Structure to design on (210 residues):
């Protein structure tokens, strides 16, 4: 089973949209950070501070990347990248499990 | 901020009740395990395999322990213990953030 080893996990959850989006923060020895999160069905808009790589481990959702007019569909597994200081939209169809990597540039 | 250090975190979420209850598994160097979880509002029954100590970090919920007829109310923070091989019920009123410790005996 896939895992992150020798990491620090913050005990308190990150909670957004009345708990329909929640995540846990994982800190790595090299100073980098990821969150492990759950998206429940719904429509959301998120903003980034730094570049984010979103890896969907399971779920069905549509993604509208910044500057795009065309929705990307992810079914099962997939990945997309959002630049820093940008907004993106999600239409989540089924409970989705993600890993978000924050990339300081 | 409270954290677990030098741990292993499984990347895949544990998902129950259509995603209304989700958690992440954290493994410690001594072989013990905890989960960090989120409870969305709803009514749930859970079963234990081993003894569980449930620490509510935030949330409002009622707990019915096995063999009890009286609900316990937790508002904000609280803790309860469930023996192995038992069932307990939760009435979750607001999004709740918990740490569950699994105690092998």
């Amino acid at each position: 089973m896939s895992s992150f080893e020798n990491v620090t996990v913050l005990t308190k959850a990150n909670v957004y949209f009345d708990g329909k989006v929640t995540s846990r923060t994982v800190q790595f020895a090299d100073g980098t950070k990821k969150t492990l999160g759950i998206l429940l069905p719904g429509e959301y808009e998120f903003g980034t501070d730094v570049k984010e790589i979103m890896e969907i481990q399971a779920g069905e959702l549509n993604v509208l990347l910044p500057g795009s007019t065309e929705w990307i569909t992810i079914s099962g597994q997939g990945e997309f990248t959002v630049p820093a200081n940008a907004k993106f939209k999600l239409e989540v169809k089924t409970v989705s499990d993600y890993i978000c990597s924050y990339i300081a540039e």
About this structure: Chain A touches chain B at residues 1-13, 15, 18-20, 22, 24, 26-27, 36, 38, 40, 57-58, 95, 97, 99 (CB under 8 Å). Chain A has a mean pLDDT of 97. The domain at 8-103 of chain A is CATH 2.60.120.10 (Jelly Rolls).
